[in-house]
Amino acid sequence: MDIAAVIGSSWICALALFAVLGDAFLPFIPSGTLVILAVLKTSQIDGAPLLLGLGVAVASFLGDLLLLQLARRGAPSVQRRLEHRPQLAASVARVQQALDGRTTGAAAAMVVIARFVPAGRTVLDLAIGHSPAQPHRFLRWSALAALIWAAYIVTLGWLNSHWFDTAWLSLAVSCTAATVVSTTIARIVRRHRRLAAI
Questions:
Q1: Which of 15, 31, 160, 161 sits at a 20 to 30 Å CA gap from 97?
Q2: Is 195 left (phi over 0), alpha (psi -120 to 50) or beta?
Q3: How far is the C-alpha of 119 from the C-alpha of 126, rounded, in Å?
């Protein structure tokens, strides 16, 4: 393993992990883009993509855990956010209702799907945090969702780093593919919600 390359790429890896942790609170953070960039910077280092993937999964799970705990304790910052954003509060209430009426498998699928929907992770964490039910099952599903998303985003970056000769093209294709996947899933979720309301 090239130690100089590891040191030179460590800042982008650290930034990517902090972004994944933080986008539970601030969903506009481009965590997926930063993870892909970190993969491209480290793809030639033996074992780096695997280690990065594990780090991304852990950071993702910790972000969920922190927001969940803040919501359950009624943190003033979380309460103010819900009070000043009626649309977010309505989304949280809608997700709570959906989770209450789902079987275990369906609820687990919702948690995994939310990881791929823009801001879905934030809404889900807040919904679980404000739910009277204990979050133990959610934490298991959140860990599974974190692993799936980490494997997906790291593999996407790694594959494109080997398919294309230039880093900027690999980054552009990876980010475009990730955006298309997220947008498609979000549209399917919205369509399913509209059909369920009929």
A1: 31
A2: alpha
A3: 11
Rounded distance between C-alpha atoms, residue 107 and residue 126, angstroms: 15
pLDDT in tens, 54-96: 999 999 999 999 988 888 887 677 777 777 788 888 878 888 7
Cβ density class 149-180: b for 16+ within 10 Å, e for less: bbebbbebbbbbbeebeeeeebbebbbeebee
Q: Quick one: pLDDT at residue 18?
A: 94
Q: Compute the chain's Rg from CA coordinates.
A: 18
Nearest CA among 97, 69, 4, 92 for reference residue 42:
4
Contact 113, 80 (CB under 8 A): no
Q: What's the CA gap between 127 and 188, in Å, rounded?
A: 20
